[in-house]
Amino acid sequence: MAFANVNLSRRQRRALSFYDDSIANTARLSYPPVSVSDLLNFSSNVEHNQLQTGILLYKILPVRLATRIIDIHDLPYICGINPFMQFIHNDYVNVFMQMKAIKHIKTQADLSKFNTLMIEGLKQGNSALPQLARASKELAPHLAPEVLNRFINRFITCRIGRRLLAEQHLAIIQQHLHPQPHSHLIGVIDHDVNIRAVIKATYKRAFLISRDVNGLSPHMDLNIEQTTALPYVVRHIQYILLEIFKNAIRATAERAIRDSTRFLDEDDIPQVQVTVHGGPSETTIIVSDKGGGISQDHQDRVFDFAFSTAQGLDAASLLEQPQGVGDYANRPMAGEGFGLPMARAYARFFGGDISFQTMQDHGTDVYIKLRHVDLKGTQNILPV
């Protein structure tokens, strides 16, 4: 979450100092873990619970923000003064101070003010991922790969959790005010995701990006073996699939163009195979391409932040707010080395994962394992 052009008092501006005591003191605070069942309980007796959940978020979110700010402080000095990292740092401090400026949440008026703060933060926080992607490129020469990966992975995972808490709270209030009788949504959690529709829509986005960049794109061959409901956060699935599809489509199109001695149309390119296997507790999506595979030298690094075999910007600028297809048609295909490790962070958030098998000079199979959101139990504890 981030704010622009926020008017702060002189006392609040002091918080922009790298070593503000209020941030360090808040980062030391603890709070109870939050489970998925807690998120779902937000929706029961909304009139009564929205104030209680608002109080809970008022306690949790500043601590999570402060912890991330301290993580930035702990970076080597040359990394902390990176302009992209400073942008993120100052945004986080800005939001932190705005939240701390709210002294308490005791009434609906207090809650309304806090909700407005979260709404604005979610809207304006979309620039953080592109900034972090650029920062990771510039930090890479100064940090060991394992240190950089640990820092960014923790940063992103915590950001996913923080935004999910805010989005769930706000969505449940909106659903209470404007009920949709036949909706599958409980807040932002869809208890029966239409995986076919999500795959088709997301593939179309990636397809149009590739067509804009390469002039053509491979079509998709979709096979779904899904017999059980898939409870999940649809936006997370979109984030994951968009990056995997972009990589598969780009590799397939570029190889076809490189190997061809004549003009190609899209029917000449091997299709990207997408297969869905659904079980009682997890769903696996397999994306298979014939894009030539991943070289041996690169296989151990494909999930490293800041590593990429492509040029240009990648999905960090695309993933935050999936919108209409037209919004993606002019976006570049890849390049900052951020998309695949971030997609895996989204998959792992609820206990899933992403892995791959590759055959050089042939293609790659990517396995996306989505662990279903448990609508009844207390597992899937959200990361700090």
UniProtKB/TrEMBL annotation:
Its EC number is 2.7.11.-. It comes from the Eukaryota. GO terms for molecular function: ATP binding; pyruvate dehydrogenase (acetyl-transferring) kinase activity. Signal peptide: none annotated. Residues 237-374 form the Histidine kinase domain. It is found in: Mitochondrion matrix. GO terms for cellular component: mitochondrial matrix; mitochondrion. It is an enzyme of class 2 (transferase). SMART domains: HATPase_c. InterPro entries: AK/P_DHK_N_sf (IPR036784), BCDHK/PDK_N (IPR018955), BCKD/PDK (IPR039028), HATPase_C_sf (IPR036890), HATPase_dom (IPR003594), His_kinase_dom (IPR005467). Keywords: ATP-binding, Kinase, Mitochondrion, Nucleotide-binding, Phosphoprotein, Transferase. GO terms for biological process: regulation of glucose metabolic process; regulation of pyruvate decarboxylation to acetyl-CoA. Belongs to the PDK/BCKDK protein kinase family. This is Protein-serine/threonine kinase.
